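Record 1 of the preview.
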Amino acid sequence: MAEDFRKQANLSVLNLTQQEIPVVVEDTKTRHPYIPVGIIMPDDFFSNVTEAYNNSTTNAACIEGLADLIYGRGLYPEKDEYKETFLKLLPQEDVRRVVFDLKLYGNAAFQVYWNDDHTKVIKFYHIPVQNLRAQKLYKSPKVEAYYYCTDWSDQKALRTKIEIPAFGTSKEKMEILYIKDYSPGKFYYSLPDWFPALQFSFVEAELSNLHINNIENGFLPLVMINMNNGIPAPEERDTIEDMIVGKFTGTRNAGRFLLTFNDDKERQPTIDTISTDDLHKKYEYVADYAQDRILVAHRVTSPLLFGIRTATNGFSSNSEEMMTAYSIMQTLTVQPFQTLLINQIDYALTEGGYPDSGVQFVQLTPIALLAASAEKTGQTVEEVKSDIGEASENPAVTDIPGEDVGGELGPPEERLEIYR
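->
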């Protein structure tokens, strides 16, 4: 009955997809030997998180800014005599990538190489964590292996996936050191700390699409054109619609007028304007609210620390207030990430023949705070850096060539080609 009515009335019905709060599901009942993790589709968690980062300006700024603060000026051993060996063992660029993955995805991983006797670790390399899936548990209470694939959505690529043992579970040349925090209800994977703002990241992306469409449509009001000279055939209707869209939409067509020719006044088209007054204010409210929720999810105490200016950011340019905001964020956001990474890396170093390495991150202070403190105290920025114990140069930016891992797997550049 409803279908017959739509046909008689010549109406098109648009079904809007109902959005729900995203829920991450680890598919433990899968037939595969690995555990897919998904939100909408069975294995789309990592792709959705990547999309939320790529398409949301606020989310991207927070992730990149906090990742830089977590990494600071690099990861170093407490004892200077170990520094040269440590930089060969654990390249700083790989540490930076692992830090970024941990902040973005809530998960990160190193590929760890052992010597031929499996008595000493000789190299750490970053491996993209979105390309890894945990092996399903059978008898062991611990994940014993991870599967590597360049594209988990490609069935052809899935046939070439590689099984790699987890760190400390085998005598293989290479193992995976998987780093994640505890997430309630999850065992195989962890959620990023900003995950509650995932939908608001997509809201920002949709708002950008809205503005693009407004520009493409020449900021024309929403109108309804009723043709009053009979109902044409479906093919003719499509042709008329395409002609109107092509002639009156797009930025180059803004300001054009509509000219019609009619047999009499009774057959002239009726053009009704659908009012959209103050619609921009509603979108502005949505944009501000989405940005605020994203900042809250990242626990950003002052958006100005990342170059984000809001209408009510709660902080002025006063250096003491900025320093307070930075101190709170260091304690509540940055240090927990650093502690998790240090504990995991120190564990791997201890098991790999480097006990009491005592690694630590060298902290990074935003230049805005350094400049404000310098202006207040009458010092230079370099003098302020010296007072707070920061080095003005980071020796880790110069990469020290690592030892050749060697062994039966061949040279490192050949062996790592599929992973890096």
